[in-house]
Design a protein that fits this description.
The chain contains eight helices and four strands, in the order βαβαββαααααα. The protein has helices at 10-22, 40-43, 63-73, 84-112, 120-140, 155-170, 180-190, 193-196, and strands at 2-5, 27-30, 51-53, 59-61. Strand 3 and strand 4 (59-61) form a beta hairpin. The structure holds glutathione (GSH).
Length: 209
């Protein structure tokens, strides 16, 4: 299978980490989805990466849907806690982390505009979402554990670890390390081979806004 990806994308990175943790071989295809000539619209009507393209041509898009596909088709090792409360906790963390990433992408795009066209209230609205989501994630992770939820690596770790490293790239001014439990979790997660092999990197976006 192939994964259509972009180097800064936290959504593609979630999938790359899950593929790595599950030991599933795949071909990584990297592009800049915002730029002219991007192939994503051929595979995803929404024009977004990540897209997982199976050998028979079937496509899965939207990182959460792709992670569900991987979990259903390749259940071992599991990324979805078997305990229902822990599964719901991990999925909540994913909702919060993905939502924070969405707001950071909007901030990044707004900052691409010239100052005359930039909306200060819009930026403030998105920044407030990121800050509130990070506070809530810090409140909800299992502070006494090595993992975000329960006693095993899961979807919650993938989502939170990915958000925190995306902020290092795109939103370094947010002092998320003031939450000692997030700092400690990040240090542990970022040591994993699946995180070390997928550190986000900038791309040059041309002419979107
Ligand atoms: N909710 C989606 C978000 C995916 C997304 O926003 N991808 C961005 C790159 S980080 C993209 O491809 N944007 C191109 C566009 O919106 O035209 C997911 O989780 O997969």
């Amino acid at each position: 299978m192939k994964l259509l990806s972009a180097t800064p994308s936290p959504y593609a990175r979630k999938v790359r980490i899950a593929l790595h943790e599950k030991g599933i071989p795949f071909e990584l295809v990297t592009e800049v989805p915002w730029n002219a000539g991007a192939t994503a619209p051929r595979y995803n009507p929404l024009g977004k990466i990540p897209v997982l393209i199976l050998d028979d041509g079937e496509c899965f898009y939207e990182s959460r849907f792709i992670l569900e596909y991987l979990e259903l088709r390749f259940p071992q090792p599991t990324m979805f806690p078997r305990n229902v409360d822990q599964l719901l906790a991990a999925k909540r963390l994913e909702v919060l982390a993905d939502g924070a990433c969405d707001a950071i992408v909007l901030v990044f795009m707004e900052r691409q505009r010239s100052e005359a066209h930039r909306s200060t209230p819009w930026l403030a609205r998105q920044q407030a979402k990121v800050e509130a989501a990070v506070d809530e994630i810090a409140r909800r992770i299992d502070a006494g554990s090595d993992y975000a939820v329960g006693d095993a690596f899961s979807l919650g770790d993938i989502a939170v670890g990915t958000l925190l490293q995306f902020m290092e790239l795109r939103y370094p001014e947010l002092p998320w390390r003031r939450h000692a439990q997030l700092d400690a979790l990040a240090q542990r997660l970022w040591e994993r081979p699946s995180f070390r092999d997928t550190v986000p990197a900038s791309q040059t976006v041309v002419g979107v806004v």
